[in-house]
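INTERNAL TRANSFER SHEET
From: sequence group
To: structure group
Subject: 2-pyrone-4,6-dicarboxylate hydrolase

Please process the attached sequence and return the structure record in the designated field. Keep the field labels unchanged so the import script can parse them.
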Amino acid sequence: MTTEMTTMTAEPPTFHPNPSKPFYVPPAGAVDAHCHVFGPATRFPYAPERKYTPTDASKEMLFSLRRHLGFARNVIVQASCHGKDNTAMIDALEAEPETARGVAVVDPTITDEELHRMDRAGVRAVRFNFLKRLVDATPREHFQRIAERVAELGWHVVVYFEMPDLADLAPFLRGLPTTVVIDHMGRPDVGLGADATAFSTFVELLEDEKFWVKVGCPERLTVEGVPYRDVIPFARRLVDTYSDRVLWGTDWPHPNMKSHIPDDGLLVDLIPAIATTPELQRKLLVTNPSRLYWGEH
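Return from structure group:
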């Protein structure tokens, strides 16, 4: 543990102070299936090993944003700045047990008692992060052991990687004993276009029904910038092809964003462009996340 890591100053806010009210009205029961809470650090300190220090973004702010955007539920994903201390995320789940579910980051030595406590609180998955700029490398056998343990609880695995790493990761991911949800469309190179070989290979991976994918986060993937039109063909291709295994989320409070501060209202207004019919929108926002995280059919 270094002094630099424990004393690094917070980065400027990455979330909009006054997001617009979206024109698009989500269907009843809509789920923001990828968002985070940060701190507040006075209650929930950030991990000493973190690669960045965010501005505090509390559960109260998250739930207020959810109502502003017209959503009914949240899936809160443990962020790397909190490491394997899931206390802030679980505190948010326990504050709204009916409307929030969680994705944790855990160590293979975690006790059965702690896993069951997380399950009671509303955790339904663990996240494996393969981005070296965000986390230190973890041996894959550690991930394998975690997956085997959470499979017994009926949880799934959420994975975060970048497209160039897919060829190396694919055999490992196929061998996991759970459903696998891929964050942010596998972070494709948008500049190559949605018909590029790399993205087509990713689409083919999803032919295996164990894989699901999140189709949000255009603000991280865009080359052209706001309003992110260059990302739409990627998300639309996935929604059209695998409508029963797609999810959407704001990624609020947009951790580690450097280029600009996204407007969450604008992100919501892109949904009809990627899910072009009411049926597809309902699957993306209601049916799929409700089945995966609340067990509703």
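Handover comment: Strands lie at 31-35, 73-77, 100-104, 123-129, 156-160, 180-182, 211-214, 246-247. The domain at 3-291 is CATH 3.20.20.140 (TIM Barrel).
Transfer complete.
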